[in-house]
UniProtKB/TrEMBL annotation, chains A, B:
Record has Ubl conjugation as a keyword: no
Chain residues that bind substrate: 146, 168, 179, 259, 378, 383
Keyword Nucleotide-binding: no
GO cellular component terms, semicolon-separated: cytoplasm
Subunit details: Heterotetramer of two alpha and two beta chains.
Lineage: Bacteria, Bacillati, Actinomycetota, Actinomycetes, Kitasatosporales
Domain of life: Bacteria
Gene that produces this protein: argJ
Active-site residue numbers: 179
Similarity annotation: Belongs to the ArgJ family.
Protein name according to UniProt: Arginine biosynthesis bifunctional protein ArgJ
UniProt-annotated site: Cleavage, residues: 178-179
PANTHER family in the cross-refs: ARGININE BIOSYNTHESIS BIFUNCTIONAL PROTEIN ARGJ, ARGININE BIOSYNTHESIS BIFUNCTIONAL PROTEIN ARGJ, MITOCHONDRIAL
Length: 383, 383
């Protein structure tokens, strides 16, 4: 499973001592070939962590031999010293594997503004290299957890080829991308340009539409590595769909494990004039703290949906808006619709439909409710 | 005090039975003249409540004889029937006072999507008219409270003239304008154009920069009425400053009474390339839930400030950003600065300075921390 579901990959997850509690904190994923094509998508936050700056450069070559990931520290806002630490980490991995540092991506997650303990991280790379295995995917997924309560993996099978992956992320989840580290692998025999095209298409409709708390990270990284080990080159559409399916699966797991969340909220914007309008409206609803509190209280407070729609620049007329919550059209033509007492909100998933009555475009954004547990987790813990 | 601090105004606040708990819920403010000039600023939410749509039209004439305000229901998203109810309310006030309905502004606050109980509201207008008094300002301020724990009034004195006002607002506080109802009165002898100019200048740097929870209301209304009763026409600068001072005072009271808040956060953006950049950055920081949770936990988590700045389009270089929390420069040149343990966060006010090192413009945005009490209040109570 995980990043070793596809042939041609080994992985490991070890405790290097970066985390003070002794939990696993260092993961290594190695593409054993024969092909070593890769693509990556990174945070659109302009304050980028050192490993993001490094990996963006590395990915320009379209080749990755390995990815080293650590939890226990984001290595963001750490200045030139932080960038040197990322570089030294890539050099260390290259040395241990006998590859080139320019083919090693680095990803970090944890507290911003703290330097990584390199005296622990570098020996950890030796330890991880020694533990590399074709069955190491689960351990790698475990080692990148921060406040995640479970590790996240997913797999899609093609005809003779596989796409698998792992993800971490629980807070600071917002688009562009959602805050997280994701490594996807495939044994399909595809080139870097195809990987890039499939990955961007997939993230745009999956991770980019997961918005747990509106906070965009400095460290978001999604990588897709191809080993070619299956010796099969699938058609683009088939391959892209498999990548999308794995991204969608992992994105759903991120939402279900979001910090403190009690409800998963699916916001479906329909009849928008264009997809951009649909996404803008969906995000605005997803980021409305008052609505998120109401959902937590199982209160179908549709007025908060309308007030969120009203802050956007999307095409609509206020008196043509319709809103359904869990199948009940509580707002019709911008006014009172069906009886709100008919809405059953006992279950974890809440489905909001916002009908803009302005066209035929649609988009779905996922978010969570806002809870006291979210406040506690993010006020008591420096993350 | 309040709206009756200036000469030429009477006011009243009564319990009309709109609120089920029997608390005061209807306020009436009457301009007794001789002048009846007025200006207004309203929510920029495109989903506007019926009273906002009505009052915007009324204000185009630049004349107001009275303002009628109710709590216990926002009359937003209530369709044509809701608009008719607003119209009927204005007609009733006009009839009772012997004035024209086109000179009566209406403002409502409370739950969105519920029709007002007109059988209680209209008799309430009679009751309020009978209670009108030159000392009625406090009672009017009390009658417009929703989740406010205290009523809010402010006064500024000029040389022979006065500006006074009242405000309500505790949740759904965000710019454009902050969610609230505000009525300001003055006995200065100024025309409607001057009122409009002074009011827009004042709200832009006060209410518009109060962002408690990022949620923009459907009902925001700020009105300024001039009676001319002092027979003094102050210079524009002096008058505008008095209006600004009253708006600033009321805005601060809104922040201090924000739902569930334990900390008032003053975000001062300095050395921005322009004022728009400063405001954009300030708002982005003010809306970062993770930072707001950290402040609640008295954790000077400056990484969350940088990640919020990074999502903006403002001019800055990531490695030139500086951040101070309560006087300690915890971030210098985009990296680790002074020891975060030096930051004393025991007090209610928290002062964050974000230095963009990109120019000489500045702006200050006020927000609150995010607390479990905010979640409780907004999940248990349909507001």
């Amino acid at each position: 499973m995980s990043v070793t579901a596809a042939k041609g990959f080994t992985a490991a997850g070890v405790a290097a001592g970066i985390k003070e509690n002794g939990n696993p904190d260092l993961a290594l994923v190695v593409n054993e070939g024969p092909r070593r094509a890769a693509a990556g998508v990174f945070t659109s936050n302009r304050v980028k962590a050192a490993p993001v700056l490094w990996s963006e450069q590395v990915l320009k070559g379209g080749v990755l031999s390995a990815v080293v990931l650590n939890s226990g520290g984001a290595n963001a806002c750490t200045g030139p010293r932080g960038f040197q630490d990322t570089h030294a980490t890539a050099e260390k991995v290259a040395e241990v594997l006998g590859r080139d540092a320019a083919e090693v991506a680095v990803a970090s997650t944890g507290l911003i503004g703290v330097l990584l303990p390199m005296d622990k991280l570098l020996p950890g790379v030796d330890k991880a290299a020694a533990a590399l295995s074709e069955h190491g995917g689960e351990k790698a997924a475990i080692a990148i957890k921060t406040t995640d309560t479970v590790h996240k993996t997913a797999v899609a099978q093609g005809d003779g080829w596989t796409v698998g992956g792992m993800a971490k992320g629980a807070g600071m989840l917002a688009p562009g991308l959602a805050t997280m580290l994701v490594v996807l692998t495939t044994d399909a025999d595809v080139d870097a340009d195809t990987l890039d095209r499939a990955l961007r298409a997939a993230t745009k409709v999956t991770f980019d539409r997961v918005d747990s708390d509106g906070c965009m990270s400095t460290n978001d990284t999604v990588l897709l590595l191809a080993s070619g080990a299956s010796q099969v080159t699938p058609g683009y559409a088939e391959f892209a769909e498999a990548v999308r399916a794995v991204c969608d699966d992992l994105g759903q797991q991120l939402i279900r494990d979001a910090e403190g969340a009690g409800k998963d909220i699916r916001i479906e914007v329909v009849n928008a004039a264009g997809e951009d309008d649909a996404v803008e409206v969906g995000r605005s609803i997803a980021r409305n703290n008052l609505l998120k509190c109401a959902i937590h209280g199982e209160d179908p407070n549709w007025g908060r949906v309308l007030s969120a729609i009203g802050t956007t620049s999307a095409a609509f007329e206020p008196d043509e808006l319709n809103v359904a919550i869990n199948g009940v059209w509580v707002c019709k033509n911008g006014s009172v619709g069906e009886d709100r007492d008919l809405v059953d909100m006992r279950y974890r998933e809440v489905h909001i439909v916002a009908d803009l009555a302005a066209g035929d475009a649609t988009a779905t954004i996922w978010t969570n409710d806002l809870t006291a547990d979210y406040v506690h987790e993010n006020s008591a813990y420096s993350s």
